[in-house]
Amino acid sequence: MNLNIIKNRYQSHPYHLVDPSPWPISTSFAMLVVTLSAVMYMHGFKYGGYLLNLGVILISTGMALWLRDVVIEATYLGHHTEEVKRGLTIGFALFIISELMAFFSVFWAYFHSSLSPSPEIGGIWPPLGIQILDPFAIPLLNTVLLLSSGAFITYAHHAIIKGNRRSAIIGTMFTLIFAIVFTALQYYEYSEAGFTIADSVYGTVFFASTGLHGFHVIVGTIFIGVQFIRLLNHHITTSHHVGLESAIAYWHFVDVVWLFLYAFVYLWSAPNL
After folding, report:
1. Shared domain check, 47 and 94
2. What is d(CA 24, CA 103) in angstroms, rounded to the nearest whole number?
């Protein structure tokens, strides 16, 4: 009898069968609130902005609690076996591919409008009346910042593999600093731009592409920030660092997308080049 009790405590397979969780459905509901409230806000409804803020708070809370459970399962309960880690890696790779398709659609819209400009915008690209941003000012600085952050997070990756926790913390910390500075400069660039998202198709594709990328930078910063906290708390080791590797892969994806944005949206659109 005691033997049966002990056997029931263990599983005969390497997979993690997750416990019932309220966070997927609550986060889905929060995303619905954000979507509806964003439409209300754009159409001038009185309380649309308040509902939008509420939705963002609900999403942030749900994701934080969901991530807390994942960290507990991985770090303290030991549910992330080698097979589970392999599945997480494959799943995250598919997620990156889906993100790539999102940016592909934005670039499709950009090239559709720029390679054959319509008569409504003067038949030229950029359209008449649009004063584009200097690609050798803030955009170039942001390019240097992102590439530098990618180098530092790669340095952190190699450091944790070699067991050098201190160097991994330093590399991750500099990545976070550069990411925050990038976001601040991007916000400043938006505030100084001489056009808006409603100013012809150029304004639309510019803010859609760089804004989508900026959103991914913010998400990536949070992702790396969580891994930084886990590094400080000794959660990440030489053999268990799938979360850190996923954050690094996501950040490199953000870097590569920015290079294409800088090359085409900024440099290629500059009339004097």
Report:
1. no
2. 25
CATH code of the domain covering residue 248: 1.20.120.80
Per-residue pLDDT of 17-73, as tens digits, reads 788 899 999 999 999 999 999 999 988 888 889 999 999 999 999 999 998 998 898
Residue 269 near residue 126 (C-beta atoms within 8 A): yes
For the chain, how many structural domains are there in total? 2
Q: How far apart are CA 137 and CA 135, in angstroms?
A: 6
Separation CA 145–CA 167 (nearest Å): 19
Return the amino acid letter for 116: S
In a domain, 154, yes or no: yes
DSSP 5-72: HHHTTS-SSS---PPP-SHHHHHHHHHHHHHHHHHHHHTT-TTHHHHHHHHHHHHHHHHHHHHHHHHI
Residue environment code for 112-147, b if the CB has 16+ CB neighbours within 10 A, otherwise e = ebbeebeeebeeebbbeebebbebeebbeebbebbe
Q: What is the CATH number of the domain that holds 22?
A: 1.10.287.70
In a domain, 12, yes or no: no
N-to-C CA span, the chain: 81
> What's this model's pTM, rounded to 2 decimal places?
0.88
Residue 82: name the closest of 261, 230, 242 by CA: 242
154 and 169 inside one domain: yes
What type of residue sits at position 42?
M
